[in-house]
Amino acid sequence: MTATPTTTVMAPEDRPRWMDLVEKVREAGQYPTRTEAERVTRIVLSALGGHVVGDERVDLARALPEEAARVVASQIPATRRLTAAEFVDSIAPRIEGATPATARWDVSSVLGVLPDLVGDDLVTRILAQLPPGYALLFGRADLSPAP
Questions:
Q1: How many Å is the maximal CA-CA distance in the chain?
Q2: What 3 state SS string does 43-67 have?
Q3: DSSP class per residue in the chain
């Protein structure tokens, strides 16, 4: 018998606010302005939205601020699963002036704030559907066995 994930619907007043999310990203990434943090947040969440599917995608959208939820939910599911490195590399061209190293910083700055925002259980479920290597982007140790 398999366990069915529980879905909790947050009341609108209990959901985090968009600007709170952006401020957490700004602090984590040490961005000089909210505008820069907001741009990076949108780019990373839109990329993530294409790679998280099913109940996890629905639950992620429900746990995020409404504006972030729209960014995640509006993405067409990816046709190919990307490794964590490919995911970062796919984001680099979307961020003006980014290098692979700065794109990794940007991705980690956004994904690293999600566990506190949406809960460790949901992040664990999201990581279970992504290829190995994503845990580090979410600020977790990558405990998956080596291939």
A1: 50
A2: HHHHHHHCCCCHHHHHHHHHHCCHH
A3: -PPPPP--PPPGGGSPPHHHHHHHHHHHHT-SSHHHHHHHHHHHHHHHHTT--HHHHHHHHHHS-HHHHHHHHTSPPPSSPPPHHHHHHHHGGGSTT--HHHHHHHHHHHHTTHHHHH-HHHHHHHHHHSPTT-GGGGTS---PPP-
d(CA 50, CA 81): 9
Q: What is the pTM of this model?
A: 0.86
Q: What is the pLDDT of residue 141?
A: 85
Residues 95-107 pLDDT 10s: 999 999 999 999 9
